[in-house]
Amino acid sequence: MPEQPFEPDRVIAGTGAGGAMDLATSEAQTLERTPGGPLGTGPAARPRSLWSDAWRDLRRNPVFVISALVILFLVVISLWPSLIASGSPLQCNLAKAQEGSQPGAPFGYDGQGCNVYTRTVYGARTSVTVGVCATLGVALLGSVLGGLAGFFGGFWDSVLSRITDVFFAIPVVLGGLVLLSVVTSNTVWPVIGFMVLLGWPQISRIARGSVITAKQNDYVQAARALGASDSRILLRHIAPNAVAPVIVVATIALGTYIALEATLSYLGVGLKPPSVSWGIDISAASPYIRNAPHALLWPSGALALTVLAFIMLGDAVRDALDPKLR
Fold first, then answer.
1. Tens digits of residue pLDDT in 57-102
2. Domain spans in the chain, listed from the N-terminal domain onward
3. Distance from first CA to last CA of the chain, Å, rounded?
4. Which CATH superfamily hosts domain 51-325?
């Protein structure tokens, strides 16, 4: 009888221990040859981190995609407003005051004869600059102070808690009216400094609570038992796991800072002419709302859309970074 050729892919179930061993060997070889490895996970598959899971969820979230595209557009026109707007926002013609839409001025003219479209486009630069710089300053200062207080605790934690209580008792708009009324600079830096001064306590509270929660985990105790220094534990083990709530709050607060800048400029204590700001344009167009409503609606709409985009972005980031919401 001719000998049958040996086929490694065919499982020949034998009897006894030898048959079971052949079956197990064949299954192991089949798994090794299967693309993606056992259960399609891949031979080199690794468990995804919080950030990779968050990024995967964000890419599939239409709210994040839409808000990110709007913010990207705002950033582009803030850096290069001449791409979509010609002329200077300071060039005005009183002969065209309060006129409606026409070629070269799709949004019409305001009470001073300035092109509303051009001023609306250039106003995005001020709002984005104030929002981003204020958020970075608040997040950096609040995270450092709150993180150190939550990590070391004791006397400094108590002192920081009482200081934050004092700042929380100061009304933001009233504080801006008092502090910025004595500033004569027309730049954005006094406004940014004021926002950082009154905004860091909120981030500090968030960072403090997040660090206190993270330092109680087992991996932190293990690192301390192995002799890791406080700086290494704080930077390598606690900070990466405690920064997510800070990012969420800071992203949402960015839109709030943009609205606050417009409010302060509207009240006359923020940016002042000849600076170009949505708050300044809204304030200047308010007396002409009946005769030229377009001069008020377009900068107001741009402000509302920008704030909404950042708030939507913050909500999407919160949903992606919070495991409880998965």
1. 888 889 999 999 999 999 999 999 999 998 889 999 899 999 999 9
2. 1-46, 51-325
3. 64
4. MetI-like (1.10.3720.10)
